[in-house]
Amino acid sequence: MTRKLVASEPPLRLLFHTALFGTLALTPLLPLHWDGRLPSLGQGLLIVSLGVYGGVGHFLLIRALQRTPASLLSPLLYVQLVWATLLGWLVFAQLPDALTMAGMLIIGAAGLSLAVGARAGGLAG
What we know:
- The protein contains six helices and no strands.
- The chain is mainly α.
């Protein structure tokens, strides 16, 4: 959706609506995962920093999609899967479970099939 909306919407509006809809969609799920304990000051700062980093990252993605064709950016987005796995292993000593790995493989295979299909369609035409 971001790729389609960058042509008609300003970056800050896109960022605001993404954050708003994400908050509205996920807040009802909070009671399912929160045990009632408040985070410590350090944990709270980490949570806030996560929001800031995520917001800045999404803003930069919006700006990149405004200036660069999505076909050039897509391979960089798939690298996120590699980095998430690597950092999860290095920082938290945790590797993805089988279901997560299956999802990552499906995402990668779908992207690869789109790239191959677009290349084959471009060669045939």
